[in-house]
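Moderator note: this is an archived Q&A kept for reference. The question asked for a predicted structure of one protein chain; the sequence and the answer are reproduced below.
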Amino acid sequence: MIVAGLMSGTSVDGIDVALLDIRGARFRARVRVLAHYTFSYPPGVREAVLEVADPASPAGLAQVARLNFLLGELFAAAVKRACRRAKVPLAKLQLIGSHGQTIYHQGAQAKLLGRSIACTLQIGEPAVIAERTGVDVVADFRPSDMAAGGQGAPLVPYIDYLLYRSPRLCRVALNIGGIANITAIPPRAQPHQVIAFDTGPGNMILDALAEHFSGGREKFDRNGSLAARGRVDRKLLDELLSAPYFRRRPPKSAGREQYGAAFLAGLVRRGLPPEDLMATATAFTAAAVALGIRRFAAGPGGLPDELIVSGGGLRNPPVMACLACWLPGVRVLA
């Protein structure tokens, strides 16, 4: 079966398209990657998504509805573009899986009209994608997981298990996107033994700080250059790591609701030099990952044998250096 997978993450930095050949089913499935691409959003789209994703934003329901249909058009166009570039005829696609663009995620229960409710919302209308491509579309993965009692995140443990299970090694797959998440796979693991959860912030805080300190000129700390010039404020780092989230047992998930505009404003009010604040935020991202692994996902020896890293944070040398420091002796693969 030839399938296209669509994803746009918390950082809202583009549309990822993967073209796959999938054979078999369930835990015997075999996956071959035919091609994968990232397409940038057109000007203004990222800003519009971030606006509606901000809980304090004045953007209304009409703006959300319009963006829902606009993103559906953009996702469909991205699939077509990927097929053309990979020379895979659109007619050969049998299925499109679309995660959508998350604009709200509340994994923990909250009270509404006397009831405890957890919820999530992704936009990028799947009906538009299906109509524009002529291909069946599967979507709403997060709501489906939450309806079944899950946290709606992370969504990758199944494929991590297929790709990385080992008869000898304890492996942890780490994705450093806007939010960082891990999948821990013990040696000889059965599916029910896999542990997966969001460790906390990934690139989200770093991107927001880079944009703030550059006056909007930079969308991220390129090569971690600003962080590399700074010094970690240990007092602030310890305070950030003392948040109850990091002691809570999985399953658990995080999002822009915890680490969005209000969190950024609180950091900036500290008055630290930009390079020191960036260095501290970088250490925070890596330390949160390490804490999650040590507390809830370590192997028999206290640490996993291998850490398999993906996501945009992989390209940030200070983040990777901090990870190596917090997880000594762990083989880091990218």
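Archived answer notes: The first helix runs from residue 45 to 53.
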